[in-house]
Design a protein that fits this description.
alpha/beta, 9 helices
């Protein structure tokens, strides 16, 4: 269905087919050597303003197809806000009650958006030594425990983004294939900030299937680079949605990983601000991390090449944070 020329039955059908845009002004401003290009997949243009709308749709549709999800059954999932927003949208349209479980350390805008979309939002207190706005691995463990309790209490279906195949499938079947089609496969590298791992894993698998020579890099917070095996990690960082010291990510297949890139909080903030000022693209922390990682590659081992990145979510979700001070 051509969603640009048709009357759609619901907002769910607007999920996906986001634009792929070349960031030529940003690379020029950053002094990237001649020939270096960044192609950005604008996932913040999904209805919930993030890439997580895709997995919300896939997780629920897969559960409906398998019979794991009964009509009218409550759906529960932990979230930093984006997956919860996507699930709130899909559940509102399909008629499922939805409970989002989130740390109080995540941004206020995300909580308000989920609540406005009809979700019941359960906030979990941070640990005593945690910093507001910086969700630690310990904080996430508390959210996980509360999520498990609610699932059991309400006999709910858990839309588990860390364990269910729908996370990988959403990006292998759709996001990755869209990028290949939009770019005609003309790119040499892909880098992505890893949270649950589904976007990186699904896209990387699609890219390697298309061309095994495409290099795929995991992006992590500098102080929480646990996936690369860096010792002594401090998970108290400001790049929301990842770096929570979760080494067991079901979606993440190491055979698709060609390297790891570490980005500091300050570099992620600088990248997001540069993206807004040069390209008019208003994004969040993790998108800024992807910008920084791509620029690092273009100034080193991928000089003169084309790199694909994901613009994960919208900067409006971070107005209460120091990203836009």
């Amino acid at each position: 269905m051509n969603k640009e020329r048709s009357i759609l039955p619901s907002v769910i059908e607007t999920i996906g087919m986001t634009p792929l845009v070349e960031l030529s002004r940003l690379t020029k401003h950053a002094g990237v050597p001649d020939g270096g290009r960044i192609l950005a997949k604008l996932e913040y243009l999904n209805p919930g303003f993030s890439k997580k709308d895709r997995i919300a749709k896939q997780l629920i549709e897969d559960a409906e197809a398998s019979g794991e999800l009964a009509p009218g059954q409550t759906i529960v999932e932990l979230t930093s806000g984006n997956t919860g927003t996507g699930l709130a949208i899909v559940c509102a349209v399909k008629g499922y009650p939805f409970v989002a479980v989130m740390s109080k350390g995540n941004s206020e805008e995300r909580r308000r958006m989920m609540s406005s979309l009809g979700a019941e939002v359960v906030l979990v207190n941070q640990l005593k030594d945690s910093i507001p706005g910086q969700v630690s691995g310990g904080d996430l463990e508390q959210v996980e425990l509360r999520t498990q309790q609610i699932v059991k209490q309400r006999n709910a279906f858990r839309a588990d983004q860390f364990r269910l195949d729908g996370n990988f499938r959403a990006h292998f079947l759709h996001t990755g294939q869209e990028i290949i089609e939009q770019s005609q496969g003309n790119f040499e590298a892909f880098c992505d900030f890893v949270g649950s791992g589904g976007t990186f894993a699904g896209c990387a698998a699609a890219f390697k299937q298309h061309n095994s020579g495409i290099q795929c890099f995991v992006v992590e917070p500098q102080n929480a680079a646990v996936l690369s095996g860096t010792p002594g990690n401090d998970p108290r960082h400001r790049i929301q949605g990842g770096g929570y010291s979760k080494t067991e990510l079901k979606s993440l297949n190491t055979k698709y990983i060609d390297g790891y890139l570490k980005v500091s909080d300050e570099s992620a903030i600088k990248g997001a601000r540069l993206l807004a000022k040069t390209e008019g693209i208003f994004a969040g922390f993790s998108s800024g991390a992807n910008i920084n990682a791509a620029l690092e590659l273009l100034n080193a081992q991928m000089k003169g090449k084309t790199i694909v990145i994901i613009i994960n979510d919208c900067g409006l979700k971070y107005m209460s944070t120091d990203l836009w001070e």
